[in-house]
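Q: C-alpha cells for this one, please.
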Amino acid sequence: MTRKTGILGGTFDPVHNGHLALAEAAGKLCDLDEITLLPAAVPPHKQEVISAFSDRVAMLELAVRNKPTLTLSTIEQLLPTPSYSIDTLRYLLSHATHPAEFFFITGADTFLDILSWKEYQELLRTIHFVVFSRVGSKNEQLYTLFNKLEYHKKGAGWYNTVSHRWIYCSSVSLPPVSSSEIRNRVALGLPVNSFVPEGVSEYIQAHGLYTVR
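A: Here is the predicted structure, written as C-alpha cells:
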C-alpha cells in the first residue's frame, strides 16, 4: 500500500510551534500518513551563520516526541552540500522501503522562488506540492505562477496533465512566531517557552544557544 508522506524541510534554527502547525495543516489537507521533518545541513539560500546540525536535530527530536505522525530524517547530513531539495528527493525515492507518494510542504513566499531552485522541473514532475499562504494574503501572483508552470485549477487543487502531479494550495492561520524572533528573544534574555515545543526552551538554555546574535 502506498504511503502518503509529507516532507517539511527547513533550517529549524530552532524548530517552533509554527512548524508543527504547518505540518498538522498539511496532514489534514492531504490526508497524509506521516510528515517527515527534514533539517537542511547547509541550506543553499541562507547567508547567516546557523547552529550546529546536531543541536538543530536534538531540538527536532524533542519536537516530534509523542507525535506519532511526525518523523525526523537526518539524511541531508549524509548528502553533498549545499542541501538541494532535488538531491534529497532522489535519495528518498531510491531508499524508500515501501511504495511512497511524496508531498513537499512549503510556504507561498518560498514557492514563488521555485524557478531558482536546482532542477525545479524534475521536482515538479516527481512530487506533489502543498503550498500555504497566510490567511488574508492575496494569491494572484501564486496562481499566475501555477499557470506558468502549466498547472490548472481542478477541484481542490491545481493539476498538471503531463506529470499528473498536484499543487494543493490553502490559507492557514499560523502562530505569529519565527525562528529569527526566537533567537532575538533569547539574546535579550526573554522567555520563549510559549513559542517552541516542550523541552526546546530548556535545551536552548542548557546549551547556551542564541545568547549572542
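A few notes: The chain has a mean pLDDT of 92. DSSP finds eight helices and eight strands in the chain.
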